[in-house]
Write a structure and sequence with these properties.
alpha+beta, five-stranded antiparallel beta sheet, HIT family, subunit A
Length: about 180
């Protein structure tokens, strides 16, 4: 006869509430990460081929676009991506660099209007060793932050609680972006 499993093991109830995020296993396992240099498998190259709602695109410009991060650190976490498949900031044209900067500034304004964050983290991780999840296609992170938004979930459970589904967030930001640029 097998021993009875300990509480919390294999679904046996215990005193803890659990948040399961099985959708994140795609990210953890690297299933969406293209081989370096493979633009055919790159999600940042494929996204502009989809319609905006399906691809979570918030705004399209001439050289770059703003899209919700499929694996956000915080609600409203946007990525600003050039259309061209380039890995390094120095590979961008002047027009691409300027437009990425402009889109980043507009993203901050739109997020302030829609979500009222207290601050932002902005950044590009250049290369896998620097933390880039998809190192082959440059992308700028625009992460809204609120006082107290870092709690025990990410530390203990590798989980982030998001109060809104990505499609709803995309619709709100896209509408506000159109108002901000009219």
């Amino acid at each position: 006869m097998l021993p009875e499993p300990a509480p919390g093991f294999a679904g046996v109830p215990d005193a803890f509430e659990r948040l399961w995020t099985p959708h994140r296993m795609v990210y953890v396992d690297g299933q969406d990460k293209p081989a370096d240099g493979d633009s055919g498998q790159c999600p940042f190259c494929r996204t502009p081929e989809r319609d905006d709602a399906e691809g979570l695109v918030v705004h399209r410009a001439e050289h770059a676009y703003a899209v919700l991060n499929l694996y956000p650190y915080n609600p409203g976490h946007l990525l600003v991506c050039p259309y061209r498949h380039v890995a390094d900031l120095t590979e961008l044209s002047t027009a691409e660099r300027v437009e990425i900067g402009e889109l980043t500034a507009t993203a901050m304004s739109v997020l302030r209007q829609v979500s009222k964050p207290h601050g932002f983290n902005l950044g590009m991780n250049q290369g896998a060793v620097a933390g880039a999840g998809i190192a082959a296609h440059l992308h700028q992170h625009v992460v809204p932050r609120w006082s107290g938004d870092a709690n025990f979930f990410p530390i203990i459970a590798q989980t982030k609680a998001l109060p809104q589904v990505l499609g709803e967030t995309r619709d709100l930001l896209s509408a506000a972006w159109e108002e901000a640029t009219c």
